[in-house]
Specification:
The protein contains five helices and seven strands, in the order αβββαβαβααββ. The protein has helices at residues 6-17, 56-63, 80-83, 98-111, 116-120; strands spanning 20-27, 30-40, 46-52, 66-72, 85-95, 124-138, 142-147. The longest helix has 14 residues, at 98-111. The mean pLDDT is 93.
Length: 150
């Protein structure tokens, strides 16, 4: 990405400022939310996280790969009502393998070095969201959509 738009710059800034996002999955008509440590590619095409294969989120993704992740700037202060930003990222998730997994694990560990043992555990999977859309909300009412992939 050579010249990011102001919307993309805002989204990247929000991603840079947060380590955790709320992943939304569903199964059999029931929603499920999980707090996950995430990383991303600079072109906004992929978000990725690590999870144990023994989790409900992993099972839910196996049943339906469509997900959303909320990343926000809240600080739990009154100022949030005026200045908080949130982006909902939608897309489809797959488990990475081979070169893709190796490359993205390196990037993930730059952001979350304290999770090294978790990332390399044989029971864990690196999950990659192919981003389709980012929906940025500022000041609770200014909504901007950014289409990433068809």
């Amino acid at each position: 990405m050579t010249h990011p738009t102001p919307v993309v710059e805002t989204i990247l800034s929000l991603f840079d400022g947060q380590q955790l996002g709320v992943l939304s999955t569903h199964c059999k008509g029931h929603p499920y939310a999980s707090l996950v440590a995430f990383a991303y590619t600079d072109d906004l095409t992929r978000l990725f996280f690590v999870t144990s294969r023994a989790t409900r989120k992993y099972d839910n993704i196996a049943a339906d790969d469509r997900v959303a992740m909320l990343i926000d700037s809240r600080s739990n202060q009154e100022i949030d009502f005026h200045e908080a930003r949130a982006v909902t990222v939608t897309g489809r998730v797959h488990e990475a393998s081979g070169d893709e997994a190796a490359t993205l694990k390196e990037r993930y560990l730059i952001r979350h070095p304290f999770l090294k043992n978790f990332v390399h555990a044989p029971t864990c999977a690196l999950m990659v969201m192919r981003v389709q859309r980012c929906i940025l909300v500022e000041q609770f009412q200014n909504v901007t959509e950014y289409e990433v992939a068809p």
